[in-house]
Amino acid sequence: MQIPVLVEPVASNGFRARTGEPLPVSADGATPEEAVRNLRAALERQLEGGKQLRAVELAPENPWLALAGMHDPADPLVQQWKEEVAAYRPIGTRTTPVQTEFSEKLLFQLPPDPNGN
């Protein structure tokens, strides 16, 4: 895990390394490297005892996913509907088996679980 660290000189001829929220920690040292080492030790102390620092990805929700999987392919009404749609289509616009399989996946499969379960 990487955390942005600001290293800056301080008035007493040393350096201060610090982080921001959610772990606002700072540490001093004679050199920038020592300040970062001291900061790392302070951060590790903060994370002891079960504290965890995690990243959460926020992806926009697709509103069309709520409709996916709402038709049961074994339902006689759905089968009749599919037959009627196929009969209504002009000959030149009928779908190929690959297109039909793709359409059925969109209509009849449940959307993926956003949590990966």
User: What is the terminal-to-terminal distance?
Assistant: 24 Å
The shape, in one word, is rod-shaped
* Oligomeric state of shown chains: single chain
Total beta strand runs: 3
Describe the sheet with the most strands: 3 strands, antiparallel
Brief summary:
This protein has 117 residues and is an alpha+beta fold. The chain has helices at residues 32-46, 76-88, 97-108; strands at residues 6-10, 14-18, 26-29. The model has no long low-confidence stretch (mean pLDDT 80).
What does this structure look like?
It is a single chain. The protein is rod-shaped. A 3-stranded antiparallel β-sheet has the order 1-2-3, with helices on one face. It is built from 3 helices and 3 strands; from the N terminus they run E-E-E-H-H-H. The chain folds into 2 domains: 6-50, no CATH class; 63-108, no CATH class. It has helices at residues 32-46, 76-88, 97-108; strands spanning 6-10, 14-18, 26-29. The chain has 117 residues and is α+β, with helices and mostly antiparallel strands.
